[in-house]
Design a protein that fits this description.
Residues 1-117 are annotated as: Disordered. The chain has 381 residues and is of the alpha+beta class. The chain has helices at 10-15, 31-38, 47-57, 88-91, 116-119, 154-165, 169-174, 176-200, 270-282, 284-291, 294-300, 308-316, 319-322, 340-343, 356-359, 364-374, 376-379, and strands at residues 67-68, 102-103, 233-237, 248-253, 259-265, 348-354. 20% of the residues are buried.
Length: 381
Amino acid sequence: MARKSSGHDTTARSSSKRGAPDKPTPTRQSKRSRVAAKTSYIEPDSDEDLEAHDSSSKHDENSDEFTFEDADSKDLSSEPEEEEEASEDDVKPKKAIPRGRLTKRTALPLHQKHSEKELLKPGGKLALGTQLIIKKPKARSEGDTPYADETVHPNTMLFLKDLAANNDRQWLKLHDPDYRASLQDFTTFLEKLSERVTECDSTVPELPVKDIIFRIYRDVRFSKDQTPYKTHFSAAWSRTGRKGPYAAYYVQIKPGDGSFVGGGLWCPEAQPLSRLRADIDRKPHKIKRILTDKAIRKAFLGGVADDEKKAVRAFTDQSENKSTALKKHPKGYSADHKDIELLRLRNFTLGTKLSDKEVVGANGLGRIADLVASMVPFVSL
């Protein structure tokens, strides 16, 4: 059965639609333009844009300097003159370069000038657009004196002197090549000195340098002096290296005539100290015979006369011994004991200072080795 017509004309239906507005429809902004407006810093779209970008920045392409680039200094809000249909590739936004990224394309002028010390202080910051160029530090030249394994080089003393005047972490970072060269110089010197020590004392084994050398870093946890570094290089030899309960030989290299060679038992635990006191109580003649030895008296006791009482007094007056001695008699011994001066000690050490001339140069190794040899009877007691 045929459907009846509704009686409405199709022409009338189309004419019932709202008429076109008088104002033209604004041109739709492409997705590409909108992406560019949102991105504050993008890469050039073509080689021509790259050339225009490089020419406007006035950057020398042969320059190797890198700068921090300020992303806010660029104006990317302009729209293209002609509108075109956006393609699928155009819809994808270009990868943005992070703010503050190092780039070689544009070298902005220096907005601020900072001193090296100011920039490297804790919490120091660089403003955007600031150019910082730091020369790579180099080690001090060896000059007319070549480095040698069996000597302490003058540069090592110069570094330690500078470190004493600038005992600071930032300073040491800037002078790391000097530190490395000095540490290597002292390490090779210790290798040669270790050979002489093991020849003198057969109880000391051949150990690697890492087992005898002390770190340059100070333990400041319980110290009022918060300077981070020691101002000397040092090492110790014993049956177990620099650590352990045994008496040891000690060598310290320090400028300003502060070098030191010594040996003995320093700050022993209660049990070894108790055994040593008992040995002195039973056989005091053993330590007295060593203290009156000619080499010991000449090198460490100020050349005192060959007399037991004078030698013992010179030994107990050694700074490391006297400063830690008991004020009264130790437990188990009477105050009027005939050897009470020795029994009151808590350190049993010998030592002497050396001038820079005695340490630096060709004669340093022999001088230190002779002092170590003279202490062998005392250390191996």
